[in-house]
Specification:
By secondary structure, the protein is mainly beta. The chain has a single domain (4-136), classed as Jelly Rolls (Sandwich), CATH 2.60.120. 4% of the residues lie in helices and 22% in strands. It has a two-stranded antiparallel sheet with strand order 1-4. A two-stranded antiparallel ribbon has the order 2-3. Strands 5-12 form a two-stranded antiparallel sheet. A hairpin with a 2-residue loop joins strand 9 (117-118) and strand 10. The protein is globular, with a radius of gyration of 16 Å. The relative contact order is 0.19. Keywords: EGF-like domain. This is Contactin associated protein 2. Belongs to the neurexin family. Pfam families: F5_F8_type_C. Residues 24-137 form the F5/8 type C domain.
Length: 137
């Protein structure tokens, strides 16, 4: 994920510093440990969810579920509440495996999940690209 920011409380009339605005364009997941990632399944340990990071070649170059149906999911625990301003996805390094569509759900508890809505509709993000093409939404 890219473009995430810590949720800040700003009093009326205050302005965010330029450094904080720039921080919102730094990858949030790059510093997270493997244990912060979980998934519905993985093809093997080399394809585990902890490898689901942009521009990482570790393991098999990314997360891959054991099934390729619409019921696979990837979960990231940020440790505390974050405001997401953009999400970057990329295919598994040096392969023809990549996501073509996904929906985003969020939760404060890890139990009650709410879908991301846009214009009153549950939003589905769609992509067409290769392993070396990063996409942002």
């Amino acid at each position: 994920m890219l473009g995430e920011c810590d949720v800040l409380e700003v009093k009326e009339g205050e302005h965010l510093a330029k450094e904080m605005e720039e921080k919102c364009d730094e990858p949030l997941v790059s510093g997270l440990p493997h244990g912060a990632f979980s998934s519905s399944s993985s093809m093997s340990g080399s394809y585990s969810p902890g490898y689901a990071k942009i521009n990482k070649r570790g393991g098999a170059g990314g997360w891959s579920p054991s099934d390729s149906d619409h019921y696979q999911w990837l979960q990231v625990d940020f440790g505390n509440r974050k405001q997401i301003s953009a999400i970057a996805t990329q295919g598994r390094y040096s392969s023809s495996d990549w996501v073509t569509q996904y929906r985003m759900l969020y939760s404060d508890t890890g139990r009650n999940w709410k879908p991301y809505h846009q214009d009153g509709n549950i939003w589905a993000f769609s992509f067409t690209y290769s392993w070396n093409g990063e996409r942002r939404k």
